[in-house]
Write a structure and sequence with these properties.
CATH topology of the largest domain: D-Maltodextrin-Binding Protein, domain 2
Shape: globular
Radius of gyration: 22 Å
Distance between the termini: 67 Å
Largest sheet: 10 strands, mixed
Length: about 350
């Protein structure tokens, strides 16, 4: 009996670990989502904002549906994981940033049609996949931040102006490997063609003040530090700094302003965070309900107030800090064409030497 007791204990521990269901990802280990039931919803997401957790909690309260969130750092890892899991995947819903990533997931066959009259009625078609495989949830613009003591807004009225020799050694931007810049490049193919993009990216590469590095906030900090005079950044990074209560953030923006480019033609390039129901979802109706909640007035208000992204609904006003930017014109025609042009855009970015 003395020999049997530790063995039984070991067997009990092993059984407990198996029921825990630990799943390994490229970045970390997390608990496996709950087994599919009519009252559960499993989400794989690359977003990492408090707003998303708040939306999930509010949805749970309203519907009594348990939301299980698995955060995955990169969209490429998320797509690879769901592709590998096939019909064994626990994911009911994929949420990620950038139209290019949504397009890649759709191309990999990871989505099924959303088939929601509420979403079709609420979200404009230029914010939705033409095949109804994903919907936009929140929008951000790619803008130009600049040192207002060294550059005049009219010098950078168009994104195309950034390739001008007058900005040699003055431009800051993150790596072209990032989806933000790849989608911007893809949008330029959509409006101007591949040759125009190649010419523009060569000009941008020759104007860089330093090797591309860091995120968008790092580019703003580099302008403040005098490492360059202008940078390509997303609008919500600037809006967050403007809304910050930290004196250091206020000081950072003391001499910095932004321009929404191309206001006299197509409008500033914009991108989306979006989501789609997985092809092998165990709870597709719950996933559909959650997407409908995210595009409801309440869900959109949480996005805008928390992350400083623009709502995809026209009847939900953006937060005060975004309203302070005025009413910029956005390039809405290119959004659903970004994904298809992304592979060619990546080749051109590499060819031009913007790495």
């Amino acid at each position: 009996m003395k020999q049997l007791i530790p063995r039984a204990a070991i067997m009990t521990i092993c059984a407990g670990l198996m029921s825990w269901g630990v799943v390994k990802t490229a970045q970390s280990q997390e608990k496996k989502p709950s087994t599919a039931t009519s009252k559960s919803l499993n989400i794989y997401t690359t977003r990492h904002y408090d707003s998303d957790a708040k939306q999930a909690k509010e949805f749970e309260v309203k519907t009594k549906i348990k939301v299980n969130i698995v955060q995955i750092k990169e969209a490429s890892q998320l797509i690879a994981r769901v592709t590998e899991e096939k019909d064994k995947t626990e994911a009911d819903l994929i949420i990620t940033a950038d139209v290019g990533n949504l397009w890649r997931a759709a191309q990999a066959g990871l989505f099924q049609p959303i088939d929601s009259k509420e979403i079709h009625k609420t979200v404009p078609d230029y914010f939705r996949d033409p095949g109804d495989l994903w919907t936009g949830l929140a929008m951000r613009a790619r803008v130009i931040a600049f040192n207002k003591n060294k550059i005049k807004p009219e010098q950078i009225a168009r994104i195309e102006n950034l390739s001008s020799p007058e900005f040699k050694g003055r431009l800051l931007v993150r790596s072209s490997n990032h989806a933000y810049n790849q989608s911007l490049a893809a949008s330029l193919i959509a409006v101007s063609g591949k040759d125009a993009l190649l010419s523009w990216t060569k000009g941008v590469a020759s104007n860089l003040a330093r090797k591309p590095q860091g995120g968008d906030t790092d580019q703003i900090k580099a302008i403040a530090a005098g490492e360059g005079d202008l940078a390509i950044v997303n609008s919500y990074y600037v809006a967050r700094l403007m809304s910050s209560q930290l004196p250091s953030d206020k000081e950072l923006l003391k001499n910095i302003a932004i321009v929404f480019p191309n206001q006299k033609d197509r409008g500033a390039h914009v991108n989306l965070s979006g989501g789609g129901i997985t092809r092998h979802a165990k709870n597709p109706q719950n996933a559909r309900l959650f997407l409908e909640y995210l595009v409801s007035q309440e869900g959109q208000t949480i996005f805008a107030s928390s992350t400083k992204e623009y709502p995809v609904r026209s009847d939900v006003p953006p937060p005060e800090v975004l309203q302070s930017f005025g009413r910029p014109k956005f390039d809405l025609k290119s959004i659903t064409r970004i994904g298809a042009h992304t592979p060619e855009a990546v080749k051109i970015l590499n060819e031009a030497g913007w790495h």
